[in-house]
Amino acid sequence: MRHVCLSEHGRLLRRxxxxxxxxxxxxxxxxxxxxxxxxxLPIMDGYAAARRIKAxxxxxxxxxxxxxxxxxxxEERIAxxxxxxxxxPKPFSPRQLxxxxxxxx
Length: 105
Description:
Oligomer: single chain
CATH superfamily: Response regulator
CATH topology: Rossmann fold
CATH class: Alpha Beta
Radius of gyration: 13 Å
Structural class: alpha/beta
Strand order of the largest sheet: 3-4-5
Number of helices: 4
Distance between the termini: 21 Å
Strand content: 15-25%
CATH architecture: 3-Layer(aba) Sandwich
């Protein structure tokens, strides 16, 4: 999982946690406004991570947008069943992704 934040000065800050526990702890501590979840993650796939986040009452209101190269029929349904609020298949245009982000912020 990559951890990306927008600083108060408008710069993107990116950090890659060492493992899923560190990533989930960072989400719990920093309470991001939105999570862009890559589904193809090592160790814990994005669906499992989304389920863990949505199972936590303190985090379940954080919108999760699945970003994936899995563009198979039914994949969006699987993403939503895992707790993702929306779905953007790769490749996507920056405008498409920004439009999705704006829906939730």
